[in-house]
Specification:
Oligomer: single chain
CATH class: Alpha Beta
Number of helices: 7
Number of strands: 7
Helix content: 40-55%
Number of domains: 1
Mean pLDDT: 94
CATH superfamily: NAD(P)-binding Rossmann-like Domain
Largest sheet: 7 strands, parallel
Amino acid sequence: MNLFDLTGKTAVIIGGNSTLGGTMAVGLGGHGADVAVVGRNAEKSEEVAQRVREAGGNAKVFSADATSADDLKQLLADVLAWTGRVDVLMNCPGKNSATPFFDIQMEEYDSIMEVNLKSVVLACQIFGKHMVDKGEGGSIINISSVSSEIPLSRVFTYSASKAAVNNVTRFLAREFAPARVRVNAIVPGFFPAEQNRKILSPDRIDSIMRHTPMNRFGEAEELQGAAVYLASDKASSFVTGSLVYVDGGYCAMTI
């Protein structure tokens, strides 16, 4: 028995054209899943879809605003028209800002909360209800951050939004368990990506390295194992409400 075989499963990756989301999409596709790559930049999404195909998987690009209920409802309908099923939902849209706390305007605060938190809630409502009503189980994987539990300086709103994602993950794990729909979160440490490069000054990088026992950044491919594990009903059938840390030991440190 192959614990990590996702053949016949359909995985919807919202934010699938991002650096980390795209790499995890490739991991799922490489293990047999049909992958719906969801993003608003069609060119970036198609690049990810092509990488999935090169890994041996099947992929299709879909466009949706992750903060729009109407877009997500249409996305669900379009994916069902494509493969007839949804087995895995991965929520990985992300927005960050280094605005000092006293300078944060509510427009910026609301924008980050919309992308990082509201999108997760909406997707879990729309896709989660489909999974629950279908009665065939499923896996929802939310992408959190190490700053969700140990708030990181300079990124107040981002940290608060990811803390809420952890809470939502555990709440829904309990709510969806009777329908065999598992809800977990991956908690990445520091993986240089487009959204966080602007806050990675040399001093900050030095501080991160001193706080990371493995003394390096993560590589995007190092998230694939956790993604495939949580997507697989065989490998993680009794795993729900878990926060899976992929952080080089960052959260194991205190001082």
